[in-house]
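Two entries, shown back to back:
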Amino acid sequence: MNVSKEVTKDAIFNQVGDWLDGFGYRIVSRDETRPWGGFFVIDEAQIGQFREQFFPEVQLTEAQLKNKLSPKILLAGPGKRLSWQYHHRRAEIWKLVAGEGGIVTSATDTENAPKTLTIGEVIRLEQGERHRLLGLGSWAVVAEIWMHTDPANPSDETDIVRVQDDFARK
């Protein structure tokens, strides 16, 4: 997969979409409207395949597998940063699967120094932990699983508390 900084947003989304199709994933939605890049949402019925392919080292209990897990692929453009954010109703598990990415995390609103991710590294973000994904020298392609902490009220895109945002979103 060509994830260099010269690849256009349309091209990287088409590449990743074709790549996911090649594995037989059903894409529930595709969002290319984010100023930092965007994401693909995978059919939740495929969480077993998604976990096996991208997170074989992560053990999920039978109870967790019965809950909503929301598998996604995030794409962060070169030099772009997602908002400095946290969530009330989810924890997250990330893995850089292609490209160059970084992360900033903190238990408070104060950002720590960024950390460069390595391909295959698993990152666990706790509910309420502040975090920010960074696209570095190329597009960052990150597999993500949402771990809904309130299964009766699952997290969604509205469960983002932005502490800081380069794009002035609230």
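entry 2 starts here
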Amino acid sequence: MGEQLVAPIAIDHPTEAPILVGSGQPLLLIGGPCALESEQLARQVAGTLKAICARLGIRYVFKASFDKANRTSLRSYRGPGITEGLAILSRIRHELGVPVISDIHDVSQVDRAAEVLDILQIPAFLCRQTDLLVAAAETGKPVNVKKGQFVSPWDMENAVNKLRGAGGSRIMLVERGATFGYNNLVVDMRSLPVMRSFGCPVIYDATHSVQLPGGAGGSSGGQREFIVPLARAAMAVGIDGLFIEIHPQPEKALCDGPNSLPLDGIEPVLAQLLRIRAAL
């Protein structure tokens, strides 16, 4: 399969011209902690990554979930909730001048989230939920759909068609691994060109792809040591962006720490990945 050209889509930016994502455009980084833990931590991550991406020529979107409704345990940390979470994301968007993205889990959240977020994200477990996809598309916002661990890459065309059928035109698809037995995921790199063939920019989720779902008993584990090797492979295959969970202290993160990268080591990783992209 040759290189699939993807017409760029535009993501609104609070202080600059819209970000373009697709063929011929700079790499996009969607990065931040799994869930919002505190405004101070969110600002630290967003400000640091904004500066790093500016130095490297990467376009940046801050990611953190106001609610993680799909945690393993009832006791697992979910985030501050929609009201406080969107308020924090709004301040980061306007005061730090970076676009923001967060998960939506229910149709009732869509309109409130669309008032703040630059991109609406559909979690992997919900990628087949027609009402949620339609509601997200009807906002006119860009929609970032994570491929379910249980869904083939070619079946993601159905999600794309649902969004387009509801008027959505700015669609991104995310590869985050496929179920491989119990408590394990594996990445089929064929999924990247397959999903790009639908005419959508494709993002590789380097951190959830090494998650061990439920692998720590009451929470998910992860294999952080494989994040960078798999990101290198995805970059060589050809992608439009990277999704990376990044935390100042992953071992203390309240959510998905085992498959997050440390903030203080991310710049050389990104620089290396850019060199691979340039070689293409």
